[in-house]
Design brief:
- By secondary structure, the protein is mostly helical.
- The protein has two domains: about 70 residues, no CATH class; about 50 residues.
- It contains four helices and no strands.
- Helix 2 crosses helix 3.
Length: about 130
């Protein structure tokens, strides 16, 4: 879509360079995302995954901005498309809230309770 909106002809080598760059960044970003989602020891998403997400977001903004000048997006989006995207973003926001607010708070409370038991348990009393 970026190629079409910015009027880059298919024979331009810039298209190949962009695809090769996306291939390299995409491999690393996919590996980092997989590692983050499957390995409990990994606490943060990698730099390349964030970079890939930001580049995709920026390309989307470029398509929206210059697409209007190119004659795209003349009609408003249908209501069902708006509702679909709204449901997607609402679900994503709920997942983010659950994943980063509720679960860490639960883990923190659990670890605090265990720490409290270890500190204040009497040495003569058997631990459960």
């Amino acid at each position: 879509m970026v190629r079409y909106v910015l009027y880059i002809p298919p024979s331009n080598p810039l298209n190949i360079y962009r695809l090769v760059l996306w291939w390299f960044v995409g491999m690393i970003a996919t590996r980092e995302l997989y590692e983050y989602s499957t390995n409990k020891a990994v606490k943060r998403l990698g730099h390349h995954a964030w970079l890939a997400w930001m580049v995709m977001f920026t390309e989307g903004l470029v398509c929206c901005k210059f697409g209007r000048a190119a004659g795209e997006f003349q009609q408003p989006f249908p209501t069902r498309v708006k509702m679909g995207w709204g449901l997607f973003f609402a679900g994503y926001a709920l997942w983010l809230f659950q994943h980063f607010v509720i679960v860490p708070r639960h883990i923190t409370l659990q670890s605090a309770a265990l720490d409290f038991r270890r500190r204040f348990a009497s040495p003569n009393r058997k631990q459960r």
